[in-house]
Amino acid sequence: MRAGIEKAGMDALEHDHVFLGTEHARNERRIWLVIALTAVMMVAEIAAGTVYGSMALVADGWHMSTHASALLISALAYLFARRQARNPRFTFGTGKLGDLAGFASAIVLALIALLMAWESLLRLSNPVPIGFAQAIAVAVIGLAVNLVSAWLLAGGGHVAHGNHAHAHHGHANHGHGDHAHHAKTGDNNIRAAYLHVIADALTSVLAIAALTLGSLYGWHWLDPLMGIVGGLVIANWSWSLMKSSGGVLLDVVPEGETLPAEIRGAIETEGDRITDLHVWQVGPGHHAAIVAVLTSQPRDPAFYKGRLSGLEELSHVTVEVTRAA
């Protein structure tokens, strides 16, 4: 009987470390849909270009294959994170895998921007004949595909909510617990996929504008110039994504983050003082914290975790209590 009670107590204390955002499954489905749409258009453009002898269509089709490959990074990250979410080898779960994929996608975006700018510079110095009507048709098709893709991805990554519940637990001077929350934290993986789509759409818009003006006024130089502008804009997006995803991977506390101050405000009352505090993101909408408390009247860690129960962004809390000399 006693063994059964002890086992029940241990079961109540045990908890998992699944720190995936609540939009995880929906975001994964959306990205696979976008990949399928892109793949269909890729095959259609290559086939049509081959049948009708259009190198512009063939080139755009192969360009879309690289676009689909980049999106595949995000899709596989969601898939792996979901399947390995309860793997104990991942100490704090797989919630950060999306940020790793986002960082990789940011590098791909930067390479795309570099290649766009370089190719445009070559075209400026060595102009080539342009089939304006055909090129505009390809750009319009590409823009339509990217607008549909952006619509599919819209809303999935700008505000990702994470909900996770754990049983509170602790012992004499050390313990950790969790509570349900509805924190608003961006999902860098879906953001990366969205930026890939928007970057491609921007390229199409700039191309349509440049080609239209070029066909009307003979401004052949405008097409490569727009390529350079597009490359600079995409490079800026890449840098922004690299900073946000890289910051999560390195456990950087973002500028303007109020959670550490809120933890101090909740704990440092009645003479209690925090001597060491670490806060980091473990997944979209999920943060972990290690809190070392110095006090003249030590209490159970569960007491201090209770003070933090109103901070919905905290999913995993470890409290260490030390008696003041």
From TrEMBL:
Gene3D superfamilies: Cation efflux protein transmembrane domain
Lineage top rank: taxon: Bacteria
Bilayer-crossing regions: 31-55, 61-80, 100-118, 130-154, 193-213, 219-239
Compartment list: Membrane
Domain Cation efflux protein transmembrane: residue ranges: 31-250
Keyword Cell inner membrane applies: no
Membrane topology value: Multi-pass membrane protein
Any single GO BP term: intracellular zinc ion homeostasis
GO molecular function, one term: zinc ion transmembrane transporter activity
Keywords: Ion transport, Membrane, Transmembrane, Transmembrane helix, Transport
Coarse class of the protein's main subcellular location: membrane
InterPro entries assigned to the protein according to its UniProt record, in alphabetical order: Cation_efflux (IPR002524), Cation_efflux_TM (IPR058533), Cation_efflux_TMD_sf (IPR027469), Msc2-like (IPR045316)
Name used for this protein in its record: Cation transporter
GO cellular component, one term: membrane
